[in-house]
Each structure stands twice: as C-alpha cells, then as structure tokens.
Amino acid sequence: MKVVGQPLPHEGARGHVTGEALYADDLCGRFPGLLHAWPVLAPHAHARVTRLDAAPALEEPGVVTTLTAGDAPGEANTGPNRHDEPLFPDEVMFHQQPVAWVLGETLDAARRGAARVAAEYEPLPAVLDIEQALAAGSYLTAPLRLADGDVSVLESSALRFEGELRIGGQEHFYLETQAALAWRDEAGYIAVYSSTQHPSETQEIVARVLGLPRHAVTVECPRMGGAFGGKEVQANASAAVAALGAWKTGRPVRVRLTRAIDMAITGKRHPFLVRYAAGFNADATLRALRAELYSDGGWSLDLSEPIMWRALFHVDNAYRLPAVEVVGRVCRTHKTSQTAFRGFGGPQGMLLIEEVMAQAAQRLALPADVVRSRNLYREGQATHYGERVDDAERMGTIWSQLKSSSAFEARRAEIAAANARSAHVKRGIAITPVKFGISFTAQFYNQAAAYVLVYRDGTVQVNHGGTEMGQGLFTKIQQIAADTLGVALARVRVMSTRTDKVPNTSATAASSGSDLNGAAVADACRQIRSRLAAVAAGMPDGEWREFAAVCEAAYRQRVPLSASGFYRTPDIHFDPRTGRGRPFHYYAFGAAVSEVEVDGFTGAYRLLRTDILEDVGDSLSPVVDRGQIEGGFIQGVGWLTIEELLWDEAGRLATAGASTYKLPSWSELPPVFNVSLLERAAMPHVIMGSKAVGEPPLMLAISVREALREVVAAFGSGVVTFDSPATPERIFFAVQRVRALRPALT
Amino acid sequence: MTKVTLNVNGETRTASVPPEMTLLRLLREEFGLTGAKLGCDVGDCGACTVIVDGKTVNSCLMLAPQADGRDVLTVEGLATMERLHPIQKAFEEKGSLQCGFCGPGVIMSAKALLDENPDPSVLEIRDALAGNLCRCTGYSKMIEAIQDVARGDNRQPVGESA
Question: Which residue of A has its CA nearest to B25?
C-alpha cells in the first residue's frame, strides 16, 4: 500500500514523546572531559576594542584556556559570503557582540573566567535604526531594483495616495538555542554536532577558521529543536567556536547559548521601512505602484541581499501590477545581523501591497475583499519580473471556495449589525490571499543529492542533504523512499544529516526541503528499483514478491544495492541587472479568513476564528502539512500582532527573554480554527505532485492584521493605518485617531 | 558540595553536587536524563517541566538540594520506547509535536493536569499549560490530544502497533 499521502505521524514522534530523541546538547554525556564555552560580551553597540587581556581568566579555578585573535590557525571570520564577521573583532559592531571566549571544566568556571577578562573600549557613535542609517548613508548593499510598465501613469490615476509603513522584525525563539559540540576525531581532524540548517556551510566555515581542507571537517546535524531560518547562517559561529576550542585543547567543547545571550547576539527577521505611492483606476484595479523598501540588516551582510530580493519579488503578493518600480536597499546598523526567517523577505513585501489594497478600499469606499479580488492575477498574466503566473486560476478557486466555506458574506453582515449595537466592543473580518514563489532565488542552491543504501535483508538507509527541524522533512523522505522502492515504511530508516554522506548540500530553507531532497531520494530509489526489477525478472514466481529475497539475490549476482540520486530544479533563471527572469519553479497559493474582536477602551483584541484553504498540491503527508499550516499561521500572527522587538537608545535589546518578548501562547490560538487543503491540486513536475508548505502559511496571518483594520475602521471614520506589529497599544491609538475623526453625535 | 538523595522515576538516586546546581542540570548532567530540556533557563518556557511530589515544576528554577527527599517524575519515567503512556500515544498519533523540543515538558504538564482533573475543558487545558511555550505547532493538536485522553479514547497504555 502506498504511504505517500497517508496521514502518518512525524517520523521522530516516538522519540519526541518519550524524550529519547536526541538534540545536539543531549549528546554531551558521551564526551568525557567536555569543556564548556562562555563568551566575553561587549557592553557597547559600537566601539573600538582598545585593550583585551584574557590572562586574568586563567587564574580562575576550572578555566582551561581562552580563545582570542591569534588562536585561529585559519581565517577567524564566519561571514559566509563577504567574510565580514570577525570571530574576535577589534571593532565592536553591536551590543553584546562576543569579543573573546573562555573555556572551562564547567559552565560556571567559564562564566566566571569570562567576567575576569580585562577588556577596554572606546565607544563610537552608533547607527541604531533605519532612519539613522538613511541619514548617515549607512548601507550594506547597493539599491536593488525591479521595474515593469510605465509607472509615470501613477500621477494621472483616478485615485492616488502615498504613505509610509514600519514593519517590525521577529525573534526566532526556536525552543532549542544555538548549540554545537566539537571534538577531534580518530584521525585528529574535527567533527561537529551542530544544530544547523546548513551543515555544508557550517563545515565550510569551520574549515575556514581552522585553516583545514573541507574533507578534514565532518558536520552532523542530529535534529533541531526548531530553526525557522535562524540556524541557516547563525549556527556557524557557535560551531566555529566549539571547533576552534577543540582544535586548540584537544578536548571536546560544547557551545550552548543561554536564551538571553542567544536573543542578544543572533540575527532576527529584518525590520523594514517602506515608502510607497500607489495609483488606482476608478474600477479599483491597481494602475501603478512605486515604493522604496529599506531593511535593517544589522552589522553584517548575512543573507540580507537575497532577503531583499524576495521582498521585491513579493510586493505583488497575488495581484497583477501593471506598472511598478520598487527599489530595495539594506541598511547597515549597529545591531545583530538580521537573517533568514520563514518567508525570507516575502512577508514584508506582501505587507506593503496589502496595506495599499486596504487603503484603496477605504478611499474608494469599497469592501476590501472586492478590491483584493479585482486585482488577483488572471490566467496568462505575468509578474513584475516577467514570470508567467501558472495556475493563476487556483487563486480564484481558493478565494471563492474559502469565502463560501467560511460564510464570509453572512458573517460580515452579522458583524456590521452587531457593531452598530455595540459602542465599545466591535468585531471585524477579513480575507487575504498568499502567492509565494518556490525556489531559492540563488539558482545554484536549487540542487540536491542523496545516497540510498539497501541491505541484503531488505532494509534501507536513506541519506540526503536536508535537515530535520520539526517541519516533517524526514517523514516525507521516508514515505517517498518506501513508495519508490516498493517497501513497507518500517524498512526505511532516514539517517541524520552528515557532510560525510552527502557533500555540498544546500541549506534546508526556502520551503524547498522536500521538493529538492525528495526528488534526489526518489532518483536514487528508482535506480535501485530498476536494478532489482531485472533481478526479480529472473527469479521463480512467488519468490520475487519478497523484497528481502530479491535483495539477497541481487547481492549474490553482484548487482549494486546502493545508489546516489541527484536533482536540479529545471527552467529557473533570473538576471538581477535587468530584473527579469523566471526565478521560481512554481507558486504556492492559499488564503485565510480571520475574525477578531477589539475592546475600544484598551485596544485589547481576541482572534475569534480563522479559516484557511491552502494549496499543497497532492499532500505528501497531510498530518505534517496541516501542522505546518497551523504553526506557520500562528507564528505569523505573533509577528504581526504581539511580538515586538525593542531596542533602547544605547542599542541594547530591551526584549531579551520570553518575559518581555510576547510569544504566541495557548491563549492566542483562535477557538475556531478550520484548516483545509485544496482538493484535486496535483502539481506536475514536483515530487509526487506535491507543493511546498513550509513558509507560505506564515503570510496567511495578514488576514488578522486586516481584520484588525476593519474593526478599527468600525470605531470611526477616516483612513486606518498602523505600523506592524499591531500591538494592543497600536490598536488603541488607531481607535483613538478614527474616533477623533468621527462625526459628532447629534 | 551537597549530597542529595531523591527518588527519580521510581528509583533512589544520589549525587554530590554544588549547592547552586539546578534540578534540571542534576537530571541531565549527573543522571543522564536528557528528556527535560533547557529552553530559557529562567522559567519562561516550560521545556524543563518535571513533576515533583505530584506538582509540575520548572526544573531550571528548582535547586537540586531542594529536591532532596522528594519524588521526581520525568518524561523518561512515563514509558519506555515499547509501551507508551496514553498521553504520549495521543501526542504521537495526533501529530501534536513538530520539532519535539517542548514535548517532554508539555507532556508532563498535561499529565499533572489529567491526574488532578481527568476531564478538563479547553479553557482549563489552556490555563494549565500556559507555562509551556511551543514555537512550531500553534498548540491546537496538543489540545486535541489531551482532550482525546480525557475522553478515554486513549486511556489504556498501548503497546507497539506500527
């Protein structure tokens, strides 16, 4: 029986519920003589290090050594592309940047030692937000630009407006903080357990810091306790410190950031400042859009450039933009290096166009869903970078099915009537679409390899380049391998991700894990399957039905029982100079309807109900996919409503713990939460007809922001706008503004 | 150093530890019980939840010597790989967890709730588990699993079925 498409539990679920599942930091007990690392943290957002004397740390009992500039035999720099992240900086670039590390027999000893390192600083002026960066001309990139059509028609549009939108960042808050454990292996080289989404890059950075060739470094990711993009690049520094410590001392070294340090020193979702001008025709179709997008990239480049590209690619969300000019630029500030986070710039781009759609509706006195639906892509239309939107009709299907299944019109009428009777507590409902491009925008990342081993007893080990962070990739891989080989699920074991099994892998990111690795695994399995079919054809009737018997026969006939598979995404290309191309293999579609209730006295709100319809193609694994949709949506609700990062005037993160940074908890879950998958949605040319699901659902949460806007509007009159996140405080003041504009009661 | 003797998962264990060592570190580093996780170290996230004398405790906030003479139940004491506790079985079948890191803590909180209140409402479940953060799932499949167990759909311990 086929297992692809079956609602199976997560491949790791048994280990998760029993506590037997091991994460990097759970392996410490296997390493006698383990050393613990603690960083020396700079107390300034920007400063020159004028003196660093680590010697006093060595007087502390239990301190074994320190790691400072000069200890690295290679290049002490962990910046992936631009080599712009010195491990031991002489110029501090953000508050609490590590300037040195102390290794101790215990964590407490290392911590006490770090406190004794004598460091002196000369504070320098700091650039702490986007406005300051613009004033100072502080950038990490040149302007990136996408343009299409004649945007000058904006000025002559029937409706024309402009504005500014500030979009807050987001802390990943993976439950497992950054973790690495390194030791010298039997050959004297380096091995690392790392909680990393990108083992091959972690290997590259460790090799760089140690001055070793890559074959001297083995990185293994057993599994991650959440990542969400926050361990794509940001895992490298912890791994490099652990490896350098192990290299210097010959002893195993553990790096496990505390929550407070993790939040203080690792990058987050980029805050954005967007300035826009939009023109609409009288029929509410968009005529032209012009926008400048500035992101707060923090101190180093990280992935900020492709993240800005993805923001620019997604300023259309699901809408046809006939004339557009968008320019994006990454600002350099003295903050953590902002990084990948589920959606990778796409959410910020989409928030811009949804703001524009909502304002157009208010200014034209039309329902927002009418304006949105009039602008949805139609079959045959192309994006502002020239990619035809295949299957555009799916968006229309989703839109109408969801409106109907959620009883959108009836509920809106009921809400309007109820609001008229209730002066201080009102409700609102909104529907928003998501179209999300699937593929890495860097073309070379869109490849994957796998190595499948079949043993004589008919059991199977599958190695591939993807990492498991909870998203269910290993579950899908196990299902794909079982069906392609034609064996029971229990025969297939998915191995932990290791650079010595599959080399030169891509990050598990961009929602592409199962598309890429699944296709590579299927390729390997098909090769083995066809070899086994030839063997089986020569076997007596009845015997060939036994997979194990065929494997044994193949072995005796000297037929190889292992194969490597490979996949490269076809037909994708993009030219950043012209801003034209086909960067995405396909688009994922979905839509959500959300209803909220706001207390006008306080701005406090509750999410009452959400209905989601998501296109995941033919679902590989419905339990996994529904989990991704629910979890992604709630994470998006957090980003857009309650999660607010605050830095003080000295550049210190004021929200460096779950006590001050409000994460979605049990009470944020809507009491009614209906998630459906689009039916008859097979996607040709993608593994087993499926579609990617990791990131797109996050942006369904825009429906909550838009429902809040509807409620605020119900409290008064005038155009409603507020920055993101829409905290209760922001909603309170937005209500105050529209109430001030309300015609006087007579 | 302080000598602590406590009952962990039905077994008497003894260790000599620095007085400032937390119960979490005692369990993980001295006893090798790595089910309870270090998530925030300050009692915000609940990943380290264990049951001490029948009550849930953030083991990152309790000192090991404070557990002296007490009964401690960790996720490892609920079941073996072969025989799951009904809550574990329900969490597995419902797809309640994704990365799994919060799971041991959530499951211990759920057990303490059901021991005290075998038929909790959704609001009571939310209230009892408010101290356990999850970043992956959105919580809904956890609530469904706990309700299943409460309704008795999954009440008896179940052996290996897969």
Answer: A107
